[in-house]
Amino acid sequence: MKITLFIVLLLVIMMPIGWFAASGSEMLRLTPVIDEVSPLYMGVIPFIQAEKLREQTQPVGDYLAYRIGRPVKLTTVPDYESLARLLELGKIHIAWFSHASLEKLRGNSDWQVVCRPVQYDSVLYSGQIVVREDSPYQTVQDLRGRKFAYVDRFSGSGFYFPNLYFKAEGIRPLDFFSSVEFSQSHRSSLLGVLEGKYDAAAVFSSELVYEGSAGLRVIARTGPIPNDPLVVRADMAPELKAQIEKAMLTMHEDAKGIEYLKYLMILRGTSKYAAESEVQTLLEQSAPPD
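Below the sequence we write its predicted structure tokens.
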């Protein structure tokens, strides 16, 4: 009985060995599994409707992915405060701020501006204060006692620079207007003016935000305002940071980058991306004398 049991166990042990041997070396081949490259996340806020937002930002993500060899995924967040929080927590790698939101939210955070777009041959632009085309208002002084819309308190053209303009005009908004509201998006402000919800609104561009800006009229311009910066954490891996910076600053020299820029030129007048040092030099030159 013991001998029989021993023989059965021996056969059980030997069967797999014989099977592998009979199958040849093919059964022993291993297929290597290579981990996919982790994506970079680029955060933006919905300053315009979703389809137009993707239309204007996806080409930048696609170009970066091509240049650095990693997928770039767009992450839409509700507001600039959320964008800042995600960047600080390392949940996104690149954040597309407005100039005012960057200045107000960076605090002591160690962030670095990679570049800003050159749009319509400038790294600076003017915000707008708009009214309905058929309204009687010709200047901001005509808006006393009327309803006014800002975008949000971290918007440059939608809050910060209009307030500088009002200050120069001797206007205290909370006393001057009958009501002041934050619409949370440039498009909402423009639609509010067209629908009569607001008598006037501060936005960055009625032409670019709303379809042709039909029915609207600009009565004042604010700024100059630096174009929106692409921002990373300063402690990003130096090699990756250098790759992103080089890719963006040479986009207009790269064959595929030029194709993306042709599309962005139609949408936003973007011809290339400029280094932060160039932007700061222009700001110093445009600053009023002491």
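Residues 5-28 have pLDDT under 50 and may be disordered.
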